[in-house]
């Protein structure tokens, strides 16, 4: 074998090895999950390189149209020019050719209705890429025309082989698409079933927000509903409660309001130049606060059954209702919008319109809770539940019968206090200050009495006062008296002076002045006597009755030099050993029942009195009884402290005094003002009125009287 033959054999082996490497690379490339654009470039470059071709092109077939997906030197060869109609028609013929590989010589053509062929000086090789379902594309290789026939056949076999590998890529891609579609349909089915499961508006909004976020695969989904002219955010994915006072929530609501008014969806990825001014401002305000990279807002319109018919029949179209809300989709970190996300957002928005529109329409039905209750009540009358239903109905009728026809004691409840019947409050007779206090709390005192000698004595001294006004008046009177006495003495001296010879006129005048001075002196002495008589009883306050000082903290309240004003309360004296009485503060609204029953009693027997039952706060288990002796004619506002822990309130009350039946049964250590809870008997009424008389009175006063 010559050296030339050995060299040719070596080159052939190297070429085969290189081709095998390229085929293995294409095989591995076809198994990768990469985009078609990336695959087309890598695939075509390797095929052109392996075949040593001048150029090549990979055409994809979508929706009945061939599109150049990738090319190598096609533009330089002039095959992409629009005037090359023969080449374009040739591509379509080769696409639908049953052959796995076709070779078209230079300037060769195929006759037919439309002439097609190779308009170049190059050899064109074609091989379609097919799957079991469809024709995916066409590979075109431009080769030199000076190659021999066996080489051309080898090129065709190689091209057919690599197109089979390309078919594997498209098969794998179709399988992945089918899998993704299946997952999408599963998610969409779950989403649709879930959001249409309930007609409750809050439940539906939260379901759309959370399930929509899972379907769209975004960062956050929010739902806004129109309230009047504004939209309020009612649901946010991942949040159980929406803080409506938060700044981001308020700004998001303003954005939804502006988009709903415009009625067109928006997609924000960083540019707001195409938005309406009001929408642009709302988007910028929200993005500045929330730092969102992408946000889509879709107005939600109510879907009706005739929407599709109206689109086909323009004569039946009606004015579309304004949106009832908006769907808001956000991406926090990524501003890109993949085509898959865009389609899913549109799907979620369409289903949200239907589900949420149905929920709002259902919620707006008049008396919907009542209709639901009536609908559920049908189950109660089925054969299985009928005995239980009849039993419950009989029980309810029995309860109503008892409430309407069973008589029960009707009593008016109020609070009150136990007080001694004989008691008296002490007041200051004048403006003064405390000089000395002689008694203390719980000290016994004695009232005015007549002694054994027949002399009337005043009661126990309680308090001594000091009045600066009385002291000043006394000093003034003493000064006037002293001045008058000195003047009288001087007049007498003038009359008795022998050294001076006074005329009759002067003597008469001096005598007249002396008489005037004596009259003034008598007047001042009378005032002093009145002053002395007034000073002692006014400045010394004595007890008006026998009893005990019941006022609390007397020494603390009446300290020395403490000023007190005229008619100011000082202390209270009560006879604890005498009779006691119950003083009730009955709310005025209950006096009608008491007056009605009292009139009924007086009609039958004028001497019959209202009966009272009461308990002490210190002994709530022991009941005491009494009779009403006096009902005041005037209602007064008193403070009702209520039960323990309850806030005090002012009530219009009527004072009722009650005489006790058995005073000896009262506790021995009873204190004045002991709190009691009492009930005044007002006859008998049906049990229903006894239990609900206050509710009945409220309805009569605030509803029936006001509106009817």
CATH superfamily of the largest domain: GAF domain
Largest sheet: 6 strands, antiparallel, barrel
Spatially, the strands of the biggest sheet line up as 13-24-27-26-25-28
Helical residue percent?
40-55%
Shape: elongated
What would you note in describing this structure?
By secondary structure, this protein is α+β, with helices and mostly antiparallel strands. The chain has 4 domains: 3-178, 2-Layer Sandwich (Beta-Lactamase); 196-311 and 319-363, Beta-Lactamase; 423-571, no CATH class; 579-707, Efflux pump adaptor protein, beta barrel domain (Elongation Factor Tu (Ef-tu), domain 3, Beta Barrel). 45% of the residues lie in helices and 25% in strands. The chain is built from 17 helices and 28 strands. The strands form 7 sheets. A 6-stranded antiparallel barrel has the order 13-24-27-26-25-28. It has a 5-stranded antiparallel β-sheet with strand order 2-1-7-6-3, with helices on both faces. Strand 1 and strand 2 (65-72) form a beta hairpin. The longest helix has 47 residues, at 149-195. The chain is elongated. The protein starts with a helix and ends with a helix. The model is unreliable at 643-647 (pLDDT under 50).
Spell out the blueprint of helices and strands:
Blueprint: H1 3-31, H2 36-51, E1 55-62, E2 65-72, H3 74-77, H4 85-95, E3 102-104, E4 109-110, E5 116-117, E6 123-130, E7 135-143, H5 149-195, H6 201-216, E8 220-227, E9 230-236, H7 247-262, E10 266-268, H8 277-290, E11 294-300, H9 307-312, E12 325-331, H10 339-363, H11 368-377, H12 386-405, E13 407-420, E14 423-427, E15 432-437, E16 444-445, E17 449-450, E18 456-457, E19 461-466, H13 468-496, H14 504-539, E20 540-542, E21 547-549, H15 554-557, E22 563-564, E23 569-574, E24 580-587, H16 591-604, E25 611-616, E26 623-640, E27 649-660, E28 674-686, H17 687-707
Antiparallel strand pairs: 1-2, 1-7, 3-6, 4-5, 6-7, 8-9, 8-12, 10-11, 11-12, 13-24, 13-28, 14-23, 15-19, 15-22, 16-21, 17-18, 19-20, 21-23, 24-27, 25-26, 25-28, 26-27
């Amino acid at each position: 074998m010559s050296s030339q033959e050995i060299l040719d054999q070596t080159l052939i082996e190297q070429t085969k090895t290189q081709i095998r490497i390229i085929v293995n690379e294409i095989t591995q490339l076809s198994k990768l999950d990469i985009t078609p654009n990336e695959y087309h470039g890598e695939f075509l470059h390797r095929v052109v390189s392996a075949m040593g071709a001048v150029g090549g092109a990979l055409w994809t077939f979508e929706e009945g149209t061939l599109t150049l997906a990738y090319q190598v030197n096609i533009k330089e060869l002039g095959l992409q020019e629009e005037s090359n109609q023969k080449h374009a028609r040739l591509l379509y013929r080769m696409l639908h050719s049953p052959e796995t590989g076709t070779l078209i010589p230079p300037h060769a053509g195929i006759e037919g209705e439309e002439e097609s062929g190779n308009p170049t000086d190059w050899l064109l090789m074609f091989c379609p890429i097919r799957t079991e379902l469809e024709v995916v594309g066409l590979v075109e290789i431009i080769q030199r025309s000076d190659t021999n026939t066996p080489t051309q056949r080898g090129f065709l076999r190689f091209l057919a082989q690599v197109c089979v590998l390309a078919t594997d890529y498209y098969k794998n891609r179709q399988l992945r698409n089918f899998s993704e579609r299946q997952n999408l349909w599963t998610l969409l089915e779950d989403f649709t079933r879930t959001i249409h499961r309930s007609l409750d508006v809050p439940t539906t909004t939260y379901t759309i927000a959370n399930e929509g976020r899972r379907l769209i695969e975004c960062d956050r989904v929010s739902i806004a509903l129109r309230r009047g002219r504004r939209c309020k955010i009612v649901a946010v994915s991942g949040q159980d409660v929406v803080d409506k006072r938060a700044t981001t929530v308020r700004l998001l609501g303003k954005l939804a309001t502006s988009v709903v008014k415009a009625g067109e969806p928006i997609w924000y990825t960083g540019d707001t130049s195409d938005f309406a001014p009001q929408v642009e401002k709302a988007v910028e305000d929200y993005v500045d606060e929330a730092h969102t990279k992408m946000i889509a807002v879709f107005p939600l319109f109510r879907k009706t059954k005739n929407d599709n018919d109206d689109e086909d029949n323009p004569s039946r179209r009606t004015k579309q209702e304004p949106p009832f809300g908006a769907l808001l989709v956000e991406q926090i970190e990524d501003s890109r919008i993949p085509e898959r996300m865009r389609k899913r957002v549109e799907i979620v928005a369409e289903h949200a319109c239907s589900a949420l529109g149905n929920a709002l329409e259902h919620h707006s039905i008049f008396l919907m809770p009542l209709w639901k209750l009536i609908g559920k009540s049908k189950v109660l009358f089925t054969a299985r539940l009928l005995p239980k239903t009849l039993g419950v109905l009989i029980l309810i009728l029995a309860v109503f019968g008892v409430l309407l026809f069973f008589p029960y004691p009707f009593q008016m409840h109020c609070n009150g206090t136990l007080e001694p019947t004989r008691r008296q409050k002490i007041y200051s007779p004048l403006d003064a200050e405390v000089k000395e206090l002689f008694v203390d709390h719980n000290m016994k005192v004695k009232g005015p009495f007549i002694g054994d000698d027949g002399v009337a004595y005043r009661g126990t001294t309680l308090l001594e006062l000091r009045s600066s006004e009385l002291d000043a008046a006394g000093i003034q009177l003493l000064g006037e008296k002293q001045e008058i006495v000195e003047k009288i003495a001087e007049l007498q001296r003038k009359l008795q002076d022998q050294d001076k010879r006074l005329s009759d006129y002067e003597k008469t005048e001096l005598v007249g002045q002396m008489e005037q001075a004596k009259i003034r002196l008598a007047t001042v002495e009378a005032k002093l006597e009145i002053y002395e008589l007034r000073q002692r009883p006014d400045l010394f306050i004595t007890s008006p009755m026998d009893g005990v000082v019941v006022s609390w903290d007397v020494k603390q309240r009446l300290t020395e030099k403490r000023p007190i004003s005229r008619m100011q309360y000082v202390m209270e004296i009560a006879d604890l050993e005498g009779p006691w009485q119950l003083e009730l503060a009955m709310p005025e609204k209950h006096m009608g029942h008491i007056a009605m029953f009292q009139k009924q009693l007086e009609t039958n027997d004028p001497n019959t009195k209202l009966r009272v039952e009461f308990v002490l706060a210190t002994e709530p288990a022991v009941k005491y009884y009494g009779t009403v002796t006096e009902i005041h004619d005037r209602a007064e506002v008193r403070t009702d402290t209520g039960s323990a822990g309850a806030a005090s309130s002012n009530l219009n009350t009527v004072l009722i005094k009650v005489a006790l039946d058995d005073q000896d049964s009262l506790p021995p250590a009873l204190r004045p003002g002991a709190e009691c809870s009492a009930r005044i008997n007002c006859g008998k009424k049906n049990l229903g009125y006894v239990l609900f008389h206050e509710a009945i009175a409220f309805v009569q006063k605030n509803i029936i009287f006001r509106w009817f």
